[in-house]
Amino acid sequence: MKTIKTIAVMSFISLVIVTSAQAALTFENYGYLAPQDGNNVRIDVATINGVEQFVYTSGRSIHITGTNSQDDGVIEQHEWTQIGGIFSKGDPSFMVVNPYNTSEAFWGQGGSFNTARPLNLVSGLDTAAVTFSADFAATENVYAGDWRSSDEMYLVAKSKNVDDSYTNKLIRIYDDNGSWASQDVVEFTNDGLFSGGMTVSDAGDVYLTNSSGNIFKFTAAELGQAITSDTAITLAGDDNTDAHFLTNLGTSGSLAIAGGKLFASGFELSNTLKSFDLTTSAIESHVINDVAANNYGYQLVGNGDDIFALRNDVNWSTFTIGNSILWGATVPEPASLILLGAAGLLLTRRKAS
Q: What CATH number is given to the structural domain containing 133?
């Protein structure tokens, strides 16, 4: 038996989350989103004005969903509501709502080819008057970011060195007496093209990967010590014998935590996600029945026990774009499957420990 949870979203998307006692995850397609003002669609989940909603970017615009539907198993269609503005500096590579203050989000553009791109704060998500901050902490080759606290963010970036090698960095962005400042917290060699993905657990632990697909874990305690001492944690290259090495899921793309598992997606996996159980260390593959999956994988968003996968339909050889598609599944909790019901399926914070 499975329970279907429906959350109303825009005119192009209705969200279906499935809970099943079966081991395999069943990903449901909850619709398409036509791109606007660019080619990157990014999405996050947040409680805004007391309602769990999606915040998403469509090109340079930012939008928010309407209210949730009842948990009646009916897929409902609702219009997207654009609540403000145009991103001033191009398509964002990441957009993450502040879990400590869901009226604002943090976004940045990738800036590949060693070109520094700006970061911005988006404020007023709980109103109809969204504003965008002035640019700050322009950084090259950034593809992922997340929040550390109410006024601190992490991002992972790839910096080119004078000898043409590259160094991956976990960078802390923080409010320093009214001005934004940056601090290198972790550094290690990365000879691949992209800076890799990252995610932060509820406990404050950081998981990040690079072009090899190796995933490294840094605990909140050691990151705090590195920040206090202003001494970056340095790994000896891309070494799977390092104490921080966790696993290799075969991709350097997007990371997210849901249901106690670390999920990964990227071009190497096409329409398959891989997961690493943070308790048992078991690795699983999860196939999404996405016949149009391209070679850039999915942007992943974890929300409690729910894992969402958003695929941008971009043909990079011709620079043409099509509809993005959103998928969702729920990771069952083995110890409490019999307790799952409508109340157990309510959306919670995007991240899990």
A: 2.120.10.30
